[in-house]
Structure formats: C-alpha cells, structure tokens
Write a structure and sequence with these properties.
Layout: E1 9-11, E2 14-15, E3 38-43, H1 50-60, E4 64-69, E5 75-79, H2 85-90, E6 94-99, E7 102-103, H3 122-126, E8 140-145, E9 159-164, H4 177-186, E10 202-207, E11 215-216, H5 217-229, E12 238-243, E13 245-248, H6 262-272, E14 276-280, E15 291-292, E16 301-307, E17 327-328, E18 340-343, E19 347-351, E20 355-360, H7 362-379, H8 385-395
Parallel strand pairs: 8-10, 8-12, 9-10, 12-14, 14-16, 16-18
Antiparallel strand pairs: 1-13, 2-20, 3-5, 3-6, 4-5, 7-11, 13-15, 16-17, 19-20
Length: 420
C-alpha cells in the first residue's frame, strides 16, 4: 500500500446530523487499489483497439491491464513495474501515462427515520425550486458516486440504469453518499420523504467508489467512459453529470494535454459529446484552483456551498457550526474557478436503506446545480454546457441581495431555479 497526501480525491461531503466544527483532515488509509505501479495509459490516435494494444503491451512491457477505455480516453489502466515504466512511455503508440491517483472518502452519518409526510428541504426552498411547472421531465442525470439505493421509495421510479466501475456486483449504494446526492436532484414529489429540485428527471447510478467511499481515477474514467457511450453525440440520453468529488490537482486549461492529466481529458470528451458536467468546489477552505475536478474551468460548472438554515432569504435563520445563516460556508473552496453557489449545509435528503439523512458539504451543493441544469435543458434542448452555465449565473441571486460573504471570498451568485 502507498501513502499519498498530494493526489487524493474525496467525496465533497461532511456527513452529520449535528453540525460539528471542521477538523484538519487526516490522511485515510488507502485500499489495495492505490498500490504503487498503477497507471492510466492513454494511446495515440491510430494506435489500434485498446484491448488489442493492451494484450500486446502486456507481453512487450510486462503490464497487467485492469480496465479498458474506448471513449472518454482511448487506452487502459494497468499495473506497471518501475523498471518498465520508461520504456512504456517511449512506446510510439503511447500519448502519455498518468498516475492512477487515489479517490477516497471517510465519513460518518446518522441516518434518520423518514418523516411522516413529505417535507421541503431547506436547500430546495432556498433556490425556489418548489412548485415549478418544469420538473426536469425527459432529462437524464448521471450521478458518478457510490451508487444509488435502487429500492429507495423516493428514488426507484426515477432510476433507469447504471454501471458498476467499483467493487461489488451492482451499482447499488453501499455507502449512502450517492443516494443523498441523487435525492437532491430527483427525489419524487409524492406524499413521503423529501422532494428533489427536478423530481421527474431520470437518474443513472454510476458507481465509481466502493462502500467505504474509496476508488481511483481509473474507476472514475470508467464511469465517464460509460456516460460517453450514452451521451447525446452518440445518440444517448444522458445530458448532465454530477461529480461530488474533490482532491488535490490543477488544471492546464488545455483538457489535460499539456500536463498529461487523463481525468481532465476524459471530462472534456464527455463535455464535447453534449453533456453538462457539474463539480463540487471541495471542502478544504482554500482556492479551488488547487483541487480537481473543480479546477477544470474549461469543462465543468464548479459549485461552492452556502449556509442556509431556514430556506429563506435574509439571514434570519439560526447560526450553524459552518457559519451564520445565508453566508459562505467556512469549509467551501473559493476563487475564480467557482461559477455559482448553492445550499450545502444541513441538507436533508435520501439515504441508503430507504432512509434519510442530513449532510453538509459542497457535495450537497453540487446536485442542486445539476438539477437546475436539468430544468434548463428541459426547456432548451441541445443547449451547450456554456449556455447552461451562463443561464444559471444570469438568474443567480447576487451576493448582498439575500446572502453575504464576510470572508470576501464569495463573489458568485446563489443558484435560483425560478424561471427555469
């Protein structure tokens, strides 16, 4: 096993029912998937079919291939011995080789029983997504996460498919985080539980992290490869992707071509296939430029988190451990890469096992924006991701008109769904 402190990605969620002060993050133990020698091999155009090349390179370079990619990137993931890495990089068929970095999340939660009747979560209330005639009908949203509870009564009728790129035998959620994110997007508008911002949007459960919230870049790229196979450019229905993930990294603003970033390249190809990609800004309380995928300003809509304790404008709700009502959450990353804010503290949503939980983090802010993107696309079929981003920013509530930023680090507006 290896210990990586610079290249970790984690779920951008802080799970709690009682809000606790943020403590310095400890480096979590890494799974065997993070063993030394794991790489993502990106092939040049014309190199041949990834499967054939992987088989041949397994002989010539002593590789042990583990995953094949044909869309998001053209290549494969493999274990490579230290003595063979340089020769692999010099192979004329190889465009570049990326380290297969660890994705990880260690979190605690306290599940709560379902409410006796449907409640309106404060986040949905604050962005004015309730009582809209537009419910996201006909729009498919892929949630790349820990999976989704496939039998949850508030979600099961909206789940249309998925892919397992992690451990286990299905794309069901063994952690809870992916189910929580999905409920904010599209929990049913019925008589029980909670309601999502786009309750008629269809959900795709793309499991890229295991039951402990651990995975690798290669598993995320596997999920993106699946999304690309069902993107509009390929005749598929998926138009929005939610990435509630964050970790150390940087953007070359060149889709990973300059700094040999396979994850960036994969996200750009999904973008170019007609999919709007939404990413959490991250929970480190620092510039988003130092974390990915938030830093990929050329490919994603990056979302910061606002404290909102009452679902109302004006800062009259109770204070939280992450800040006063209607202020910038003190854990949220910030900076010019961030496009828009959304509620991200004490967000009530669905949880695995048919339950519900209250969770905080930019992971919780991002799905509000993914749902809003679905609402916009329901009325603007074929809109490019930049058109979606710019429309949401135009409708957003400017700082000072209903929310403030005592830190001076929060120029972005707050998502508003009314009018979509």
């Amino acid at each position: 096993m290896r210990r990586i402190t610079q290249n970790m990605i984690r779920l951008a969620g802080i799970l709690a029912v009682a809000v606790l002060p943020i403590l310095p993050a400890a480096t979590p133990a890494l799974s065997a998937d993070g063993a030394p020698g794991d790489y993502i091999v990106v092939l040049r155009d014309g190199a041949g079919e990834p499967g054939d090349v992987a088989v041949e390179m397994s002989r010539t370079h002593g590789l042990a291939p583990s995953r094949l990619y044909s869309r998001a990137v053209k290549g494969f993931a493999a274990s490579v011995s230290a003595g063979r890495l340089d020769s692999l990089k010099r192979d004329s068929r190889v465009l570049f080789v990326s380290e297969d970095r660890v994705v990880s999340a260690a979190a605690k939660h306290a599940a709560a029983p379902p409410p006796p009747s449907q409640i309106l979560p404060t986040g949905i209330d604050r962005i004015n997504a309730e009582n809209l005639s537009n419910n996201g009908t006909g729009i498919d949203v892929a949630v790349l996460d820990t999976g989704i509870d496939l039998t949850h009564p508030d979600l099961k009728n909206n789940i249309v498919g998925g892919k397992n790129c992690s451990t286990g035998k299905s794309y069901a959620d063994g952690n809870g985080h992916g189910t929580h994110v999905s409920g904010t997007v599209a929990a049913l508008d019925n008589s029980a539980g909670v309601v999502g911002a786009a309750p008629e949007a269809r959900l795709w459960a793309v499991r890229v992290l295991d039951n402990s919230g651990n995975g690798t870049w290669s598993s995320i790229i596997c999920g993106l490869d699946f999304v690309l196979s069902k993107a509009p450019a390929n005749g598929g229905p998926i138009k929005v992707v939610n990435l509630s993930l964050s970790g150390t990294g940087a953007s070359d603003n060149d889709c990973g071509r300059s700094n040999k970033d396979a994850l960036h390249q994969a996200i750009c190809r999904v973008r170019d296939a007609g999919v709007t990609v939404v990413a959490a800004a991250g929970n480190s309380g620092r510039p988003a430029s130092g974390e990915v995928p938030a830093a990929y300003d050329d490919a994603v809509i990056t979302v910061s988190a606002l404290v909102d304790s009452d679902g109302k404008v004006g800062g009259q709700g109770v204070a939280t451990g992450y800040g006063a009502d209607d202020t910038f959450a003190n854990f949220s990353n910030y900076g010019p890469e961030v496009d828009i804010a959304a509620p991200g503290v004490n967000i009530r949503s669905t949880w695995k096992g048919g339950g519900y939980s209250t969770v905080s983090g930019t992971s919780m802010a991002a799905p509000h924006v993914s749902a809003a993107a679905a609402l916009y696309l329901a009325g603007h079929s074929g809109a490019a991701w930049t058109e979606v981003r710019d429309a949401l920013k135009l409708l957003a509530e400017p700082a000072g008109s209903g929310h403030s930023d005592p830190s001076g680090l929060h120029p972005e507006g707050l998502l508003q769904a009314a009018g979509l």
